[in-house]
Amino acid sequence: MNASNPSFQPKAVRLMPVRKPTVVLASGVFDLIHYGHIYYLQEAKKAGGPKARLVVIIARDQTVERLKGTHPVLPEDQRRAVVESLKPVDEAILGLEDLSFGTVIERVQPDVIAVGYDQQAVEAAVRSAIARTGKRVRIVRIGQFDRSSLDSSSKIKRKIIAELKDDR
Q1: Is residue 91 part of a domain?
Q2: Is 103 domain-assigned?
Q3: Is residue 2 part of a domain?
Q4: Got the DSSP string for 68-128?
Q5: Rounded CA Rg of the chain
Q6: Local confidence pLDDT in tens for the 168 residues of the chain
């Protein structure tokens, strides 16, 4: 009862359950950011729905060297900071040296894992890790945005090298 209004009766308040945002996990090297990276991250976040949270795993320098046989142009801490500053990204973290997708899944607890159009080996490893963890995680393959001459960091590097040679 309210002292200023004796007939006032408070209404029962029905609390809606708080839904945790859908967590989407994406990963990559992200050396020399280009539009293909931006497209991949935008589409990854969309895959989780309107209130999704996008967590991005940045490959470690040693992992890149071991898998690709080359050093990244930018060191891992700079690549992580650049990716984290991008609009669709909520958090960017450095990956594990041993590439343990199972450990990453346990730590990040994603609802969705986005893989790029060219990440068949990553998708296979993720599927295997999901099976081992027993978690319910949806895998989404993000298509290629456009086939252009500069749709990968490697192609950008090759173009720069070719143009430097031509300038000599």
Answers
A1: yes
A2: yes
A3: no
A4: HSS--SS-HHHHHHHHHTSTT-SEEEE--TT--HHHHHHHH--SEEEEETT-HHHHHHHHH
A5: 22
A6: 555 666 767 677 777 777 789 999 999 999 989 888 999 999 999 999 999 999 999 999 999 999 889 899 999 999 999 999 999 999 999 998 877 889 999 999 999 999 998 889 889 999 999 999 888 999 999 998 776 666 667 777 777 777 778 777
Q: How many domains does the chain divide into?
A: 1
Q: Which residue has the tokens 């990204």?
A: 89
State which residues form the domain around 56. 23-166
Query: Residue 74 is part of a domain; what is its CATH number?
Result: 3.40.50.620
- Which one, of 64, 52, 7, 8, lies nearest residue 26 by Cα? 52
Domain assignment present for 17: no
